[in-house]
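sry for the spam today, last one i promise. struct tokens for design, 341 residues
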């Protein structure tokens, strides 16, 4: 009930502040001032309005769109969509960036604490903004608990920040948020207020909610964390049988693309959870593998494998990271959140 109310709240959210700008360079800002959506070739005032209403309200959003997306919302021909995208790209210097530019972008990356010193060390400080962090592992390994912790820590780090929680399994528990907030000496209501929870009832709804998260940002909310728990459960349940695999992977890819685009454009952290399945033909090594195959693996920047350890502890193993060594750490789940074992 609480969650349904929150969904309504999320959808009803009123415009509060000015829309935050997406870290454009000075040069880009100048060019954007010069060029408007209706200035793009083949895009008149009416089409520009359609685009704006569907969330394509700046040149960057058009520059990173696919022709299919533009065709869908604006009803233009493919040639027009391609030309408009190209013109938006040309106006924004979207080609190569120098190492210095990228270095400056990296400097804006923030780390969100996991609450456990060892876990933070494993991730060189915590869960990164501008990236997707995936935790996969068997039931009860701590994936959901970490999602709750990260939502709280995001707001503790920045009281203005908002965490979006897309809950597909009905496992979001306000009570756990309350416990974690209290353990950190925070006002639980303040933290709960800044977590926007929406229950996703199927994979299409889940994909839509991820897109809606962008609307919250455009309405002025400072979204710094998006949790998708679980990323893959609906997809796995809905697409059964060999024949549906391609469609499932295509949809998952699109969903992750939405998330990754938002992480990059708004410098926010995305945390997704993923189940594992048994590999019955495996005789050596780990007999489980993550759902979603290479689509999920390649779209995740950091991948962690969670499992139960000795005496009720949990083990997190970093299995993929662009700039960190593969390593593991031991932690435990407690009343207060996650802590060093
Ligand atoms: P699935 O979603 O089923 O795949 O599992 P998951 O990986 O999301 O597991 P989750 O994060 O929900 O972890 C569940 C485990 O957390 C439980 O088995 C408990 O060991 C632990 N846990 C949950 N709540 C509490 C609590 O209030 N206190 C303590 N000490 N442990 C808790
Ligand atoms: Mg879970």
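last one done:
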């Amino acid at each position: 009930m609480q969650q349904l109310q929150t969904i309504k709240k999320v959808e009803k959210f009123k415009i509060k502040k000015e829309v935050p700008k997406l870290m454009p360079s000075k040069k880009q800002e100048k060019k954007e001032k010069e060029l408007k959506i209706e200035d793009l070739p083949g895009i008149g005032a009416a089409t520009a309005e359609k685009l704006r209403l569907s969330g394509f309200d700046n040149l960057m959003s058009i520059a990173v769109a696919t022709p299919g997306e533009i065709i869908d919302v604006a009803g233009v021909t493919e040639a027009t969509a391609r030309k408009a995208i190209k013109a938006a790209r040309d106006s924004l210097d979207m080609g190569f960036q120098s190492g210095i530019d990228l270095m400056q972008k990296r400097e804006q990356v923030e780390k969100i604490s996991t609450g456990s010193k060892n876990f933070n060390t494993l991730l060189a400080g915590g869960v990164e903004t501008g990236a997707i962090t995936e935790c996969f592992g068997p039931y009860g390994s701590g994936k959901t608990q970490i999602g709750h912790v990260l939502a709280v820590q995001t707001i503790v780090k920045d009281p203005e920040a908002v965490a979006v929680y897309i809950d597909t399994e009905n496992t979001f528990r306000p009570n756990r948020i309350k416990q974690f907030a209290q353990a950190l000496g925070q006002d639980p209501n303040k933290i709960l207020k800044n977590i926007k929870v929406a229950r996703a009832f199927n994979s299409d709804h889940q994909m839509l909610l991820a897109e809606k998260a962008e609307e919250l940002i455009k309405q002025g909310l400072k979204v710094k964390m998006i949790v998708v728990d679980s990323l893959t459960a609906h997809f796995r349940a809905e697409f059964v049988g060999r024949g549906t695999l391609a469609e499932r992977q295509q949809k998952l890819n699109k969903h992750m693309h939405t998330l990754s685009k938002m992480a990059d454009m708004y410098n926010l952290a995305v945390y997704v959870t993923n189940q594992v399945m048994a590999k019955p033909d495996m005789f050596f090594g780990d007999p489980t593998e993550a759902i979603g195959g290479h689509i999920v693996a390649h779209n995740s920047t950091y991948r962690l494998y969670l499992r139960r350890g000795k005496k009720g502890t949990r083990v997190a193993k970093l299995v993929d990271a662009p700039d960190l060594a593969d390593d593991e750490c031991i932690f435990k789940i407690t009343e207060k959140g996650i802590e060093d074992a």
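The chain has two domains: 2-92, 104-340. ok im logging off now
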